[in-house]
Amino acid sequence: MKDPGRNMPRAILTALIVTGIVYLLVVIIATSVVAPASLAQSEAPLLMVVQQSSDAIPGGLFTLIALFAVANTGLLNFIMGSRLLYGMSRQGLLPEALGAVHPTRRTPHIAILTVLLVALALALSGTLTYLAGTTSLLLLLVFFTVHASLIAIKRRSGSTARTFCAPAVVPILGAVTCVGLMPFVPRGSLLTAAIILGLGTALVALRAQHPTR
Q: How far is residue 148's CA from residue 174's CA, in Å, rounded to a whole number?
């Protein structure tokens, strides 16, 4: 990217707008084909919409599409989680081993293996609903932290860099929205996320007490 200060904000905002429009279209189409009450009670609402709207798409094909979507989301979260651990390690918040980079592939392989172990433990510990709820809650915690960080950055003075600046109300609304959505996840997910957050806090505290480790 030749001018990230100008182009990156435009790219992110454009992607959010396009994605939001697609989600709204899916909601409008789904509720026009199947009653909202029926969709709320279904374990596979989009499959119900497809089955009632057309017989041209077999259920097996839709299953493959759903598996691809889940795998894609999992891969994105996997990459985000490992790079998050890598960045925190490079800033001295987590053990140095998590910031190691593979000499050939140039990827944070220790952080990737750590996220893999955590993901496997979560995948084997409960149902898909439980796993999805835990993942959603952890993502909300990450997003809340990002909004809170932006609020702290905006309170600082003296920055003259030419870049996109969101109004102060945006991160405030974002942080409040994240907190408001957290109670809607399963109770078991709340406990699991609290344990993971506690372990992360303990690692940060241990790193602060022993910065050379």
A: 9
DSSP string, 7-38: HHHHHHHHHHHHHHHHHHHHHHHHHHHS-HHH
Closest CA to 76 of 3, 155, 19, 154: 19
pLDDT digits (tens, 9 = 90+) for 45-69: 888 888 887 777 776 787 788 788 8
Q: Are 174 and 145 in contact (CB under 8 A)?
A: no
Residues 6 or more apart in contact with residue 31 via CB below 8 angstroms:
39
DSSP state of 54: -
Whether 100 has a pLDDT exceeding 80, the answer reads: yes
Query: CA-to-CA distance for 111 and 187, rounded, in angstroms?
Result: 28
pLDDT at res. 55: 74
Amino acid (one-letter) located at 171: P
Q: What tokens appear for 190 in the block?
A: 């709340």
d(CA 138, CA 180): 14
Cα gap 194→61, rounded to integer Å: 38
Burial of 122 (0-12, 13-18, 19+ CB in 10 A): middle
Q: Is the pTM here over 0.90, yes or no?
A: no
From residue 11, alpha-carbon distances to 15, 40, 191 in Å are: 6, 34, 36
The residue among 161 and 32 whose pLDDT is bigger is: 32
CB neighbours of residue 213 within 10 Å: 9
CB 140 within 8 A of CB 189: no
